[in-house]
Amino acid sequence: MNLNATLFFQMIVFFVLGWFTMKFVWPPLTKAIEDRRQKIADGLAAADKGKADLAQAQARISLIEASAKSENHARMLEAEKQAAAIIDEARREAEAEKARIIAQAKQDAEQEVQRARDGLRADVANLAVKGAEQILKREVNAQAHAELLNQLKAQL
């Protein structure tokens, strides 16, 4: 075995192995490494985009919460205004009903006073007739003197 021939064949095998590796082994490895690098870069970009989307979503949530709170506050104020309006309306209706009841009571009282006056006039007329009857010692005919009695009632 010649050392030079062995060295020469080893160099040829080395170059053939290097060529074979560069031609058939290395391209799939570099492609796999590049694909993996691209997936990692896409994952990092997606994570950054997710963080940005999360921040935007939280900002929108804050805006929606603030809007809901202000809308709720406005609705509460409107409800309070409506309640006050309903109370005022009920108060006005109660005052009107009170005035109507008082007016009705006054009218009823006036009617009762008028009936009492009419009753008293009739009683006074009867007493006057009885008094006149006693004075004259004879009976006065009420039907015959109805007009005279009505004039007497009107004067009383």
Automatic annotation (TrEMBL):
Binding partners and assembly: F-type ATPases have 2 components, F(1) - the catalytic core - and F(0) - the membrane proton channel. F(1) has five subunits: alpha(3), beta(3), gamma(1), delta(1), epsilon(1). F(0) has four main subunits: a(1), b(2) and c(10-14). The alpha and beta chains form an alternating ring which encloses part of the gamma chain. F(1) is attached to F(0) by a central stalk formed by the gamma and epsilon chains, while a peripheral stalk is formed by the delta and b chains.
Annotated transmembrane regions: 6-26
GO cellular component: a single term: proton-transporting ATP synthase complex
Stored PANTHER family: ATP SYNTHASE SUBUNIT B, ATP SYNTHASE SUBUNIT B', CHLOROPLASTIC
Family: Belongs to the ATPase B chain family.
Domain of life where this protein originates: Bacteria
Keywords: ATP synthesis, Cell membrane, CF(0), Coiled coil, Hydrogen ion transport, Ion transport, Membrane, Transmembrane, Transmembrane helix, Transport
Protein name, per record: ATP synthase subunit b
Alphabetized InterPro entries for the sequence: ATP_synth_B-like_membr_sf, ATP_synth_b/b'su_bac/chlpt, ATP_synth_F0_bsu_bac, ATP_synthase_B_chain
Membrane topology summary: Single-pass membrane protein
Signal peptide residue numbers: none
Function text: F(1)F(0) ATP synthase produces ATP from ADP in the presence of a proton or sodium gradient. F-type ATPases consist of two structural domains, F(1) containing the extramembraneous catalytic core and F(0) containing the membrane proton channel, linked together by a central stalk and a peripheral stalk. During catalysis, ATP synthesis in the catalytic domain of F(1) is coupled via a rotary mechanism of the central stalk subunits to proton translocation.
UniProt subcellular location: Cell membrane; Endomembrane system
NCBIfam families: ATP_synt_b, PRK05759.1-2
Primary location: membrane
A Pfam family per the record: ATP-synt_B
Coiled coil regions, renumbered to chain: 77-111
Organism: Pusillimonas minor
One example GO MF annotation: proton-transporting ATP synthase activity, rotational mechanism
Lineage: Bacteria, Pseudomonadati, Pseudomonadota, Betaproteobacteria, Burkholderiales
